[in-house]
């Protein structure tokens, strides 16, 4: 089963983190053809700081969106807190993990950045 969700917003700022959406329920990673995936996009903001030009994901938004996809699109029960890493650059091909409390266990999902516009894919809950 594959599901795709696209969320657009002004969630990217230089020096901030991004959030995403995820799929759940399997030990299969995003790169596996059978993995359910979800794609999220955030529009870049024109705001930048003089010392930092790299765009990063909005971690609060990513945490929220990952949880929403797990609950609403993949019907994962018992999803609690989601914790994605801060200050992750918007860079095509980058991969990182978000940690999720689900059914009173700590699990993880793999985030794969799809493009430099902020779209990312969330792998199945591991």
UniProtKB/TrEMBL annotation:
Biased composition (Low complexity): 28-51
InterPro entries: DUF4333
Region (Disordered): 20-51
Domain DUF4333 residue range list: 52-118
Top-level taxon in the UniProt lineage: Bacteria
Pfam families: DUF4333 (PF14230)
Protein's name according to its UniProt entry: Uncharacterized protein DUF4333
